What we know:
By secondary structure, this protein is mainly alpha-helical. The protein is built from 12 helices and 5 strands.
Amino acid sequence: MKRTDDDIKLAELLKKDGYQADENEWFTPRVLNRLPEKPRSSKWLKVAIYAVVIGGVIGCWLWYLHSRDTSVITVRDLLTIASGDSRLSKDKCCRYLTQVGLCANDYLDREVDVSLSGGEVKRIEIATLLARHSALMIFDEPEAGIDLWSFARLTETFEQLHREHTASMIIISHQERIIQLADEIIVVGGGAGTLCEVSSAWAQLRMIVSFKNVEGTSKKVADTCIDHRKRYPFDDRCYGVESAEEAIALLTERLPLYTRRYEGIKAVERNG
């Protein structure tokens, strides 16, 4: 059979690779198609190998650095730092945790890391505030993210602080239970539910200060009475103010009147 041009080309290619083709040997296009393709460049394979090796080296180095850093911080450490007492006793730490509804045995030596839930972190933060024994404490919605039992323990702690007069507290909250603890209510803004909260404070005979230069419920109730009941024998209303300085001055002037009158009313109610 006569050799075709494809046979001749293939024989030349094989000869370049070291194969000596016989003169009588012939090749068809089908054989040509079955031959393995010429090996591709290994450039990208080398790049991939280098990347894996370099990544492994970096990973091992990071693991080594992490393994050397054995310092961790526990809940006990946080309470100790917050109190400023390097010799803070275990009993005091347990008391702070119990006040916010946490089991001291489960949390005292627990690491502060991502394993803690949002509610747990919130209560630990409040416990650190209690450990500081600050003259002024500000709580922004302390009831957020905690269960009802823990909230009850927290309100008991607030009540105790209030009775002992150990600290002044500013609590930002929408809970009626918190409103019952307050000496006075300051209405800053107004959205859904705010009018209900102001009405609750009014029914509980609390002093109410409302910003009249803020849109919403705050502006609507400023310098008005929520209802027609005569709560106190003096000028009693939701006092409208336009600045924090004016609010503080008004509280300083008027709060003693409300406090004495309110405590007198409660004393009469208790004695029948």
